[in-house]
Amino acid sequence: MDPTPFIGLSAILFTIGCIGVLVRRNAIVIFMCVELMLNASNLALVTFARVHGNLDGQVAAFFVMVVAAAEVVVGLAIIMTIFRTRRSASVDDASLLKY
Amino acid sequence: MAGSSTTLQTAYFGSYVPLLAIIVVGVLLVFAMFGGNALLRPSHATPEKLLTYECGVDPVGEGWAQTHVRYYVYAYLYVVFAVDAVFLFPWATVFAGLGWVSVAEMGVFIGFIAVGLVYAWRKGVLTWT
Amino acid sequence: MTTLAVSPLLSESVGDFTKPSIEYFDLSPLLIIIGVALAGVIVEAFVPRRLRYVVQTLVAVVGTIAALVMTVFVALGLEPRGDNAGFGAIAAEGAIAVDGPTVFLWGTILVLTLISVFLFAERHLEGGVTAFAGQAAALPGTEAEREASTKGLEHTEVFPLMMFAVAGMLLFPASNDLITMFVALEILSLPLYLLCGLARRRRLLSQEAALKYFMLGAFSSGFFLYGIALVYGYAGSMNLGDIAEAVSGTIGADPLLLGGIGLLAVGLLFKVGAAPFHAWTPDVYQGAPTAVTAFMAACTKVAAFGALLRLFYVGFGAARWDWTPMIWVVAILTMATGCVLALTQSDIKRMLAYSSIAHAGFILTGFVGLNAVATPGTAELTSLQAVLFYLVTYGFMTIGAFAVVTVVRDSSGEATHLSRWSGLGKESPFVAGVFAFFLLGMAGIPLTSGFTGKWAVFTSAWQGGAWPLVVVAALLSAVAAFFYIRVIVLMYFSDPVGEGPTVVMPSVLTTIVIAVGFAATVALGVVPGPVLDLAAHAGQFVR
């Protein structure tokens, strides 16, 4: 197995997630892009686990999934509170705090 | 510091010069492209052009569909149990050889999650009103 | 990628499963705090509402003290590793290192937590309720919110949330393995995101702070995780000791390793609030309830710097020539950003936030100086000891200063705008004096702990050969002193604007916090010896 395509794919997914966070304005979409970054990392982790022939990377992927789930719970709670208050999930509208 | 180590350091930092060059070129490229774009394009912004593009049709309503908040809480509880299962399966393949201590330790783990469930129950989340 | 050869059979390497052993005694402070957090959730579920506040506060205080006592026992029981390799052992199958620096950081975090609990529990200032939202789900400015506030509701969940965050903070600097470090990072961050959004007053600001903190925090932890994946791909192990071995066995630069170091650094530097990853700090510090700001400014920074030190000294120590230039740039940028932008602030909490960014820069100076071995019997300090000491001084000053901010109020709550602070010296010479002292401490005036802390990191950095950085740091300290003194001048030599500020007499809880912060700042400035000795005795990280 040549790991390069898998690592390449994970790097592309990570970059897409990263750019998404930077250019999108909707909090939910930004949040989905962050999840994409985490899952790109998972792909890299399991590929490297295969390359090195040990299970560390796969176990790590489990932990990352759990952490991502916890992050979803907390993140959606925060985004939902903001949305109910402002009727908008645009991060541009959240601009009371500056300078 | 001895003289030889200084030359070594100079040579070492010298190896970063290509990196620096790439950064400079990269930054310049961004400015050049955006600057060129801004200079060449006509700019006649109308409110319509700033609307979200939705297959050529005027966007209708908001991108948000209302769902009852209750589903969020159920999703949360689903997460609790999904997380539970992820760690139970690998353990289930080996616990027979480990004895009761490992069962007790797994009990502690499930206890952690149960605390969350107890909290949800006492806050009235589990009753469908 | 040529070095990556795929092993034929994964199952061969898995082999027989052996039962992991857990060192329950060594990990007891951490386990106690997790237990306290869970107990807090149970209390929230079963104890009647009117008793919850008292029970939660007691559980948190007693639990933190118990963890502190166990930390002392663990510290006394640390075994020397021989030939100057530090004290302690690797626990939990290589996942957690319980060594001198770990125990020192545990002690620091727990003491700071203890006084933060008092700040959280303060009820006098808001007229009988805590400073946290009565009902976080009620929308600001609605009937539901007014009803919650007339009923005197309060969220006592803040105590278990805080304890979960503390559990993450204890685990973070102790983690000896990358995935443990990532999990600890999230355990410490997630409760803090929620706590930031729970202010009773100025709820829109508070919610916005929570959103910004969460978004940027999740973004940075994505970088951290990809860094873990790359370093794992490079070293074939998550364990810091194995990574160190792989790094020292490498000749030349490996793109996987360099990329991994860079991405891991982004995640950690975000948490310590170093430029250019500092943008969240002022917004979050301003918007969060002041008690939470005090807690996270002090404890998060201690925990994150502990993790940064362990990761870079233990894991990437052999690759230091690759990461020192990067940290040099970050340190200078951080100090400059913190000091210069603090000059332009008009809000006291924002100013303190920029000041904490500047402090992160000073700590990075000590970190990058990398004076690895001190001559025994002299006053020389290793960079590790200098940074540990600085973190203690910084923690107490910061909590003290934010505690003072909570008592200066007007009709709309805390008077955080700087113009409201003018003439405070006439209104309340005592409070203004204490605050002025904290500011002088942060500026690093002799006879305060800020001076001894700065002296420690600067000398260790100088001895480590980073003298240009020390010169820059000293110059920027002078700039920083200017904006601290500006506030002092404002308090003492300006006339009050309008009605002027009022100082609300807090309950004994906040008074204790201010007194402890003040006492620590004086004591560490006048007789820093004992704590410096303690930091020196902490020795080095074990691997």
UniProtKB/TrEMBL annotation, chain A:
Keywords from the UniProt entry: Cell membrane, Membrane, NAD, Oxidoreductase, Quinone, Translocase, Transmembrane, Transmembrane helix, Transport
Entry-linked InterPro entries: NADH_UbQ_OxRdtase_chain4L/K, NUOK/Mnh_C1-like
The protein's enzyme class: translocase
Compartments reported by the entry: Cell membrane; Membrane
Residue ranges of the TM segments: 6-23, 28-48, 60-83
Pfam entry (one): Oxidored_q2
Enzyme Commission (EC) number: 7.1.1.-
Domain of life: Bacteria
Cellular component GO terms held in the UniProt record: NADH dehydrogenase complex; plasma membrane
Keyword Protein biosynthesis tagged: no
One GO MF term attached to the UniProt entry: NADH dehydrogenase (quinone) (non-electrogenic) activity
Recorded topology in the membrane: Multi-pass membrane protein
Catalytic function, reaction form: a quinone + NADH + 5 H(+)(in) = a quinol + NAD(+) + 4 H(+)(out)
Biological process (GO), any one: ATP synthesis coupled electron transport
Subunit-structure text: NDH-1 is composed of 14 different subunits. Subunits NuoA, H, J, K, L, M, N constitute the membrane sector of the complex.
Entry's family note: Belongs to the complex I subunit 4L family.
PANTHER family: NADH DEHYDROGENASE SUBUNIT 4L-RELATED, NADH-UBIQUINONE OXIDOREDUCTASE SUBUNIT ND4L
Function according to Swiss-Prot or TrEMBL: NDH-1 shuttles electrons from NADH, via FMN and iron-sulfur (Fe-S) centers, to quinones in the respiratory chain. The immediate electron acceptor for the enzyme in this species is believed to be a menaquinone. Couples the redox reaction to proton translocation (for every two electrons transferred, four hydrogen ions are translocated across the cytoplasmic membrane), and thus conserves the redox energy in a proton gradient.
Protein name in UniProt: NADH-quinone oxidoreductase subunit K
Organism in which the protein naturally occurs: Nocardioides iriomotensis
